[in-house]
Amino acid sequence: MKKLLIIALSLCLFGARLSAQQEIMMSQYMFNGIMLNPAYAGTHPYWSATAMHRSQWVQFDESPVTQTIAVDGPLGANREVGIGLTLSNDALGIISQQEIGINGSYKIQAGPGTLSFGLRGTFGVYSANVTDAVIWDEDDPLYQANISGQLVPKIGTGLYYYTSRWFAGFAVPVLYASDNNLLGETSLAERYFTNHMYLNGGVVFTPSPSIAVKPTMLIKYEAGAPLQADINCSVLMMNRLWAGLGYRTGDALLGMVEWNITPQLRLGYAYDFTLTDIADYSSGSHEIMLGFDFGKEADVKIRSPRYF
Predict the structure, then answer these.
(1) Cβ contact 203:67 at 8 Å
(2) pTM: predicted TM-score of the whole model, two decimal places
(3) pLDDT digit string, tens, across residues 41-95
(4) Residue 283: CB atoms within 10 Å
(5) Which domains does the chain have, with CATH numbers?
(6) How far is CA 179 from the centre of its chain?
């Protein structure tokens, strides 16, 4: 039963153009901003590297699995330019996709904060082993041959505004994709990858020198799918430990922690408790993240903590 459900999900993703998310799902998005928005690149005064692994709907055969690696930092005498590299591997049943993205940003002072403009160029390798699936309509031309290693160039963009106490961002990770090679000859669709739009923001309150409270929100929109929002609130204690709770509309309750082991090294974990009928077959989703900040400015967090 579990395997049939995953195959059904995969075929929906492959054949329908999608009423489901095509972009990477993350619960710890507030600690991994460049994966959402290229304008986030280089917004810290130091370089930062983050690795993440996510296992979604555990106990399903061939359930969604995602890994990402991201590195970004500032350039220029005034750190007005940011660059970043993003790598990802995303697999769901018969479908897999690997991507490498080059991110660039340019920052200007705007009022009390900084406005960053970002661009991302991505090369994706897309595969679908449709012959591994059980096909009810064996004459459907869409499922007659596997897709193996199809190269899909993409372009994305974003804006990010931040001060020392609050931030807001808007991104379209895939503004354009050269994806005609993924469409079947009988397809009426003009594109395979659709535009996903992300709007997020957050603010930090410090009721005491040892406590910081950070509510955040991420709104995700894609034509043909319901609007979805991640609503979270995290508390930082003694500049060492983040603990937070969240809710993803129509999907799950979230719990997460991030431990700043040293000023440079951090470890994060998130658990999604599924609220849909999938909970009858899966105990939830797990996500682990490891981050390291480096460069001569990395210890600036000791004197002036950055909350995002």
Answers:
(1) no
(2) 0.86
(3) 999 989 999 999 999 888 777 778 999 999 999 998 889 999 999 999 998 877 8
(4) 12
(5) 2-303 (2.40.160.40)
(6) 21
